[in-house]
């Protein structure tokens, strides 16, 4: 995935509207090299999103009560941090923003059902 920060933000915003329409979105950093977004699902559950243009770094983390409980990123290679063991790295093929947000929606819905 090698797109501009602006394009990345546009794709993130479209996915948020589709999967989390009632979420509050905080744009914490936005410039030509970096993007940091927080998607507030509840007061204790949110998604932190980071995109670094220069190193093509992508990081999506689901945070609950200050702990990462799930994540998908491409540090070294594409992998995810399973909800059962969020410290683990499980390989995954490269994922689009749409695919990532759809996965997060499924996990968040499962959490709400518990």
Summed up:
The protein is an alpha+beta fold.
Would you give an account of this structure?
The chain has 114 residues and is of the alpha+beta class. It has one domain (5-113). Helices cover 28% and strands 39% of the residues. It has two helices and seven strands; from the N terminus they run αβββββββα. A seven-stranded antiparallel sheet has the order 1-2-3-4-5-6-7, with helices on one face. Strand 5 and strand 6 (79-81) form a beta hairpin. The relative contact order is 0.16.
Topology, element by element:
Blueprint: H1 5-19, E1 24-30, E2 34-42, E3 45-52, E4 57-64, E5 67-73, E6 79-81, E7 90-91, H2 97-113
Antiparallel strand pairs: 1-2, 2-3, 3-4, 4-5, 5-6, 6-7
**What count of structural domains?**
1
* Secondary-structure element string: HEEEEEEEH
> What portion of residues belong to β-strands?
35-45%
How does the overall form come out from the CA principal axes? Answer: globular
Oligomeric state, counting identical vs distinct chains: single chain
Our measurement of the CA-to-CA distance between the termini, rounded to an integer number of angstroms, reads 34 Å
Q: Features of this protein?
A:
alpha+beta, 7 strands, 114 residues, 28% helix, 2 helices
């Amino acid at each position: 995935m090698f797109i501009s920060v602006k394009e990345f933000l546009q794709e993130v915003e479209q996915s948020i509207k589709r999967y989390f329409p009632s979420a509050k979105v905080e744009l914490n950093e936005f410039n030509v090299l970096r993007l940091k977004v927080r998607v507030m699902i509840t007061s204790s559950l949110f998604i932190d999103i980071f995109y670094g243009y220069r190193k093509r770094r992508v990081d999506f983390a689901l945070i609950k009560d200050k702990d990462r409980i799930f994540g998908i990123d491409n540090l070294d290679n594409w992998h995810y941090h399973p909800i059962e063991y969020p410290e683990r790295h499980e390989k995954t093929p490269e994922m689009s923003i749409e695919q990532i947000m759809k996965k997060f929606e499924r996990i968040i819905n499962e959490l709400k059902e518990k």
